[in-house]
Every structure is written in C-alpha cells, then in structure tokens.
Write a structure and sequence with these properties.
The chain is mainly beta. Helix content is 8%, strand content 44%. The strands form two sheets. Strands 1, 2, 3, 6, 7, 8, 9 and 10 form an eight-stranded antiparallel beta sheet that branches. Strands 4-5 form a two-stranded antiparallel sheet. The two termini are 27 Å apart.
Length: 143
C-alpha cells in the first residue's frame, strides 16, 4: 500500500489581530521552522466502587486539557509578528492562532493561547533562533 504521509512544508502558523470574530484578521508568522503540538490530554477520574466488576478499577473521562504548543523561528528582531509575540508575553494577552496545514490536506487547526515561554539561541556559526511556547486556553477546532 502506498503511504499517504505528507510533508509539513508550506504549513503556516498565523496570529490573530485581536479584532472580535468573525472580523478578526490573521497574519502568518514569518520564519517558522517547526511546530510541535498541541499536546492534548484528558483527565481520567477514578469511578471505582464497591461493586466494580472483577475488583478492577473503573474510570470515566474528565475534562480535556489542550495543552501546549511550541514553535521555532529564525528570529528577526524588528519583525512585527516576532515583536508582537514578545508583547503578548509581556502583557499576558490571550490571542487566537491558526495552523494552516498544506493545501493537499485542506485543514486548519484553530485555538486561543497565551505566550507561555520564549527562549533563544545565538550561536557563533548558525542562525539566531527563538522557541516560543504557547499554552492553549479552551477548545481546539480542526476544520
């Protein structure tokens, strides 16, 4: 069977402008080299009781935690979106984001998030980079 795997090349991470939906505009964050996440998980609640069959633990699904997402950029100080991410971190701004997957997949992942972390690397013989961590707040939509 032939694989249906696709490259992530041409994916875009977009940052909302803060205007209330449905009029919110999104701008692609430039120089993104990789996106990791979001790392979703669901709490499990112990529902074991005195009559649980086979004296085995039973569980029910708890709330979803849509976790974190991180992405790497070739950092360009002065870039409007790169500086905007720093401002979002400094101000604790909850912002809408989208990951637009390659056209062949035809899907967009949408979510609201806070900038949770910023770290950088300034090597002697390589590009200057930053890793940005986002904490997803609320639901994730894949459409």
């Amino acid at each position: 069977m032939t694989t249906k795997a696709q490259l992530g090349y041409s994916s875009q991470l977009q940052r909302g402008d803060g205007v209330a939906p449905p009029n919110e505009g999104f701008t692609t964050i430039g120089e993104v080299t990789s996106i990791k996440g979001p790392d979703q998980k669901r709490d499990m609640k112990d529902a074991t009781n005195m009559q649980s069959p086979g004296s085995a633990k039973e569980f029910i699904a708890g709330l979803k935690d849509n976790g974190t997402l991180s992405f790497d950029i070739s950092w360009v100080p002065g870039d409007v979106q790169h500086d905007g991410l720093q401002a979002d971190f400094d101000n604790g701004t909850l912002r809408n984001f989208k990951i637009v997957l390659p056209v062949v997949l035809g899907k967009t992942i949408s979510f609201a998030a806070l900038v949770e972390s910023l770290s950088g690397s300034i090597p002697v013989e390589d590009k200057i980079t930053r890793t940005i961590g986002l904490r997803v707040s609320g639901a994730i939509t894949i459409a």
